[in-house]
Amino acid sequence: MCGIIGLHLRDPELHPMLGRLLDDMLCGVSERGPDSVGVAVYGDDRRNPGGQAAVSVLRAPGDLDRSVAALLPGTPDVTASRAGDTTVLTAPVTGETLAAAVTAAAPEALVVGRGDDVVVYKGAGHPQDLARTYGLREVSGWQGLAHTRMATESAINPEGCHPYSVGPDQCLVHNGSFSNHATIRRELERRGVTFDSENDTEVGARFVAACLADGDDLEKALLRLGETFDGFYTLLVTTADGFAVVRDEIACKPAVIAEHPRWVAMASEFRALAELPGIGEARIFEPDPGKVYTWQR
Amino acid sequence: MAALSRAEAGERDPAPAVTVDLHEVGVRALNAELHAPTARSYEVLHPAGAHSIAAGVHDEIDVRVRGHAGYFCAGMNQRAHVVVDGSVGNGVAENMMSGSVRVRGDASQSAGATGRGGLLVIEGRASMRCGISMKGSDIVVGGDIGAMGAFMAQAGRLVVCGDAGDGLGDSIYEARLYVRGRTGTLGADCVEKEMRDEHRAELAELLAAAGLDHRPEEFRRYGSARTLYHFTGDHGSYG
């Protein structure tokens, strides 16, 4: 099953309410994925301050901020905050530099998000409990997404949680399963791409990240994904300025989009959208099979 | 049930309606009451997209859902008349046997799937696979339907007042499809057919039952070319 929610705020007046809106939406998809939940939020200055980068880490040792600071001479301000299984490090360097320092300082740790704007949280447990752990209701920002997981193909643990965030400020969440991911994984590995897990969704995320790195825009990257991947999927993909939804050509996996002058929202089920402000005036539709829907900030 | 209270009549039914507020009780309690009804008319408040509202009702009662319903609303309906003042999720009126279900808003996928009887009216649009494997029910959609409508439909009538998406009537048996707007690609073995007087007559009845005033002459009819009914023996690997 699995549940997806995403919210892209067009009206800056709503930015302080992002976390509260996401938390209400999350309630509507909790039953679809009671195993674990991952969340990504964009534009929360308290969690990813301007001029800095944030890196989200699983299995982080307690002194990670100090050991990372030791690897970044001239960077005095490495801060760490823990929310359940996820540790978020921030520092005034690029996301890639900070992620590389984390991996060098703690090879046993796993980087699950990096960027100048995004912060990613992952954990196993009930979505509502984890939303409290992440402090979701207090989040502000301009965009966010979450994935509730009902595991079918790999263990229930924070590592198996979506979103997969493998490029700067990029996140991908998936409801469904890819069937030819092993072939595509081998092709990407030949091109030098490395993987963190055996998960099929990670292959999709790495593929999209490689397309974006090649210069594709979000729409083209997802059209290429549709030409390359076989299987069932509804995907929500977010970047530093974009929000995109695509379903496979059979479109068995549910998706509802609501578009309002103040926001764009996507969810697996309507009930996750029911409490959004102005939902009565929103244009509500189900995305067509194989069609890429994108919104830019 | 503490949350049940007598309320004023709904606009459709002059009998006093029992009100059930889903902010106060769960869907299980609602459906338990509807399965052994102590009243003839019910009003459901704050559905908020909950699943399985009024599923499995088998008595001639009226149920009015004041808002948006989730999956399987009014599934397996027999004899009841259910009206949803909002949209519905997947599988509304799935496997309906008789009675009627009216959706004032839009319907998600597989609306009216496998229905054997009764009338489903969707005043808005229906998503993909509307009427999949319908087996004798009638479905009238006020707006468009998505791709793969009436997939493997076996019997019954599907009326689409807007456009129909790609793959209409794929592998269809004997259901009759009427479309007022454009159709995308037709599914395997689905073809346009002549509109004869008996078709215009049954379409007029269906439109009247749905409360729509389109003229039957505005519609085209689609159905099975019946080329998939039998193995033809000319498939090389079997010959």
From TrEMBL, chain A:
It is an enzyme of class 2 (transferase). Its EC number is 2.6.1.16. One of its GO terms (molecular function) is glutamine-fructose-6-phosphate transaminase (isomerizing) activity. Residues 2-297 form the Glutamine amidotransferase type-2 domain. Keywords: Glutamine amidotransferase, Transferase. InterPro entries: GATase_2_dom, Ntn_hydrolases_N. SUPFAM superfamilies: N-terminal nucleophile aminohydrolases (Ntn hydrolases) (SSF56235). It catalyses: D-fructose 6-phosphate + L-glutamine = D-glucosamine 6-phosphate + L-glutamate. This is glutamine--fructose-6-phosphate transaminase (isomerizing).
Automatic annotation (TrEMBL), chain B:
Transmembrane segments: none annotated. GO terms for molecular function: oxidoreductase activity. Gene3D superfamilies: Glutamate synthase, alpha subunit, C-terminal domain. InterPro entries: Glu_synth_asu_C_sf, Glu_synth_lsu_3. SUPFAM superfamilies: Alpha subunit of glutamate synthase, C-terminal domain. PANTHER family: TUNGSTEN FORMYLMETHANOFURAN DEHYDROGENASE, SUBUNIT C (FWDC), TUNGSTEN-CONTAINING FORMYLMETHANOFURAN DEHYDROGENASE 2 SUBUNIT C. This is N-methylglutamate synthase subunit B.
